[in-house]
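Reviewers asked in the last cycle whether our approach scales beyond single polypeptides. To address this, we selected a multi-component target totalling 421 residues and predicted its structure end to end. The input consisted of the following lines:
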Amino acid sequence: MKKKKWPETWRTINPGCMVFDAGNARTYHTGSWKAERPEWDDSKCIKCGICYIFCPEGCITQDENGFFRADLNYCKGCGICAHECWPGAITMVEEG
Amino acid sequence: MNIIENFELYAPRLIDKEEYFCSGHRACQGCGEALAIRLMCKALGPDTVVANGTGCMEVISSFYPTTAWNLPWIHLAFENAAAVGSGVEAGLKALRRKGKIPDRDVKAVAIAGDGGTMDIGMQSLSGAMERGHDLLYVCFDNEAYMNTGIQRSSGTPFGAATTTSPAGRASFGQKTWKKNVPEIMVAHNVPYVATASPSYPLDFMNKVKKARKVKGPSYIHCLSVCPTGWRSASNLTIKMGRLAVETGVFPLYEVEDGKYRITVEVDELRPVEDYLKHQGRFRHLTPDVIEMIQERVYQEYNKLLDKVNGLHAWSDLKFEGELFE
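The resulting structure, written as structure tokens, was:
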């Protein structure tokens, strides 16, 4: 199957509106939705991964030192990670 | 803190790092349903075909021309998630028999919301369970038709204000109790039925893994918190799911071969008000209505405990000359 780009006019829409690219929602950045962003205090982090498992976006990843970081291109700023982080390593900081 | 609790704490690092439901989907902030789908896909793994009935998850994951799914995925109408899921299973079986696809274990999974399961898709779900397809059906219950603007469904709890059961001077919101679909599924003699919540992620993923291994129909009822429709704060999503379990509103149990087992034990139920007070949809409730809800929750919980303590596994009930007393 050949890969198509985003359709520009209705003539370039794929038959049946099929999408040939799995997981191409990554091209759409939802990070602009947020009003607050999470910030990690690595001195308090115990690397348990609670923030990673509870992130509805799946945008939190572990870096090479074992600490967790959110991909701010996708983070919507819901604050679940900051609320669930029981050592209190995550704080929500207002954007801008 | 004992060892088991420590395991629960550090186990998130052991789960599958692959994202099958990728970032960039358009769910609201703090969506419990998107989290549930993400965890479900991690537990199911790559050999899965997902049939998705209409609902929030279909809309937010597949804005044309993008899709958040890294798994084979079919979009369906409201009423036929279970019908197409069983068709996928039958089709895979036929292709495998004819040697057109490699012989490996591919699980058909049908997912739908509470409207697509409890109201509109009930007949196709009942049919699929009755025919005994090798199908996992997961209902993501956010307790109303959230996608179209918070209309009541039969999953909406008593007293909740929605746009079609508004609270005001003449009414206190939803006037009927929540439909108990897991119990209907148990009545279909389904080998594995469970209730789950993404607030207990390891419990949820273990249930999905268990259901995947079942050769035959299985049903998981997942309470997914909806901050938009429940009028709760987005950062309380996980806490709301946990409170639903701790107050006994949504007990987590599994029914395996007819034997009930509570998977998340609660020593003492918290007052139901703890759960209601964080939600704007219950804000109008007066103490006497809360008292009614509390009584009903205790009654339902006792009914469940009665089944947990009283019922035998179906395989123990074979006919051996005389009937079971």
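The first strand of chain B starts at residue 48 and ends at 52. We regard this as preliminary and will revisit it once experimental data from Aim 1 are available.
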